[in-house]
Amino acid sequence: IRSPQCRWLMAEECVLAGFGQAVIGPPGSGKSTYVRAMHALLTSMGRKACIINLDPAGEEEEPGAAVSLRELLGLEEVMSELRLGPNGALLYCMEYLQTNLDWLQSRLQSMRGTYFLFDCPGQVELYTHHPALPSILRRLGEWGLRLCAVHLVDSHYCTDPAKFISVLCTSLSTMLHVELPHVNILSKMDLIEQYGRLAFNMDYYTEVMDLSYLVDHLTSDPFFRRHRRLHEKLAEVIEDYGLVTFIPLSIKDEQSLQKVLSTVDKASGFCYGDQQRSLGNLMSVAVGADFHFASYPNDFF
Ligand SMILES: Nc1nc2c(ncn2[C@@H]2O[C@H](COP(=O)(O)OP(=O)(O)O)[C@@H](O)[C@H]2O)c(=O)[nH]1
Ligand SMILES: [Mg+2]
Question: Is residue 98 part of a domain?
């Protein structure tokens, strides 16, 4: 067992030693599309990966998923049997999974050593305040899985300063709630030009630079002028934490997907590989912009 986290745990607890991504974000932000594209990229690089579908919603089984929560229970049956609406039923499904994690453990254990891509449901409260999902992810960590949260947000929100401030607030609370190494992504960048003119250049949105410009721009609209103080305070909270930045992603652009993967590999610690490396090597990987995937084969596991 190479994971340092595992050394703190009982040997029998550490059943999954490996790496993976928890792909989270609002509905329609592109999570399932991302998971499939990332799976294809990893496979083309010779990295053994599999998709774990934790979304009980949707009409069809996720194509290519090795494990699906729908094997345990489906949203439709929960809605009809417990007379719940779609949102309540989805929260019930996650709470049910939280109390039946032995099912997930036994399903994942047979794939030990694989890189896991968790396709999570698109219910925002799961990421901002509901306890079930962080608890499930924490348990996966206790089993030795070193996960990185990949949070997708539709780049459409950049076209509206008020919505972009909301996205920054949601992204920050998600980072604080989920408590994992975290990478925020602006998805569907290929559509950004169709979405309309941006008030600032793209770097301003991805780097989350001085937000006073955004507040000024927003409050130049008479409708928002009377809420200036509120927006200033929200911007202050986001800047004080200084945690939120984004990586742009267009699913058809393999280079942007590679960039996401290299950032995720740094965040999760995958790129550091063998823990026996010298401190110098670790530092050079940490600061080096160019991480050569090809030189890090599957022998990490
Ligand atoms: N143009 C474009 N469409 C995308 C991209 N990523 C996802 N989509 C589309 O966005 C829609 C929602 O994606 P999906 O993966 O189902 O979102 P989920 O609900 O978060 O799982 C689908 O029609 C996808 O084809 C992208 O990078 N570019
Ligand atoms: Mg989906």
Answer: yes
Could you report the per-residue pLDDT of 197-243, keeping only the tens digit for each?
A: 888 888 999 999 899 999 988 888 888 888 889 999 999 999 999 99
Per the domain annotation, does 173 fall within a domain?
Answer: yes
Q: Tens of pLDDT along 102-151?
A: 999 999 988 888 999 999 999 889 999 999 999 999 999 999 999 999 99
* Torsion, CA 251, CA 255, CA 259, CA 265, rounded to 10: 90
- Is residue 36 in contact with ligand 1, taking CB distance under 6 Å? no
Q: What is the domain count for the chain?
A: 1
Determine the atom of ligand 1 nearest the C-alpha atom of 119. 21
- Whether 86 maps to a domain, the answer reads yes
- Chain centroid, CA 263 distance in Å: 12
Domain range enclosing 37: 15-208+244-280
Residue 168 lies in a domain: yes
58 alpha carbon – ligand 1 mean position (Å):
14
End-to-end CA distance of the chain: 8
* Chain centroid, CA 47 distance in Å: 19
Q: How confident is the model at residue 186 (pLDDT cuts 50, 70, 90)?
A: very high
**CATH number assigned to the domain comprising residue 148:** 3.40.50.300
Rounded distance from Cα 28 to ligand 1 centre (Å): 6
Determine the longest span between alpha carbons in the chain, in angstroms. Answer: 62
d(C-alpha 245, C-alpha 203), whole Å: 10
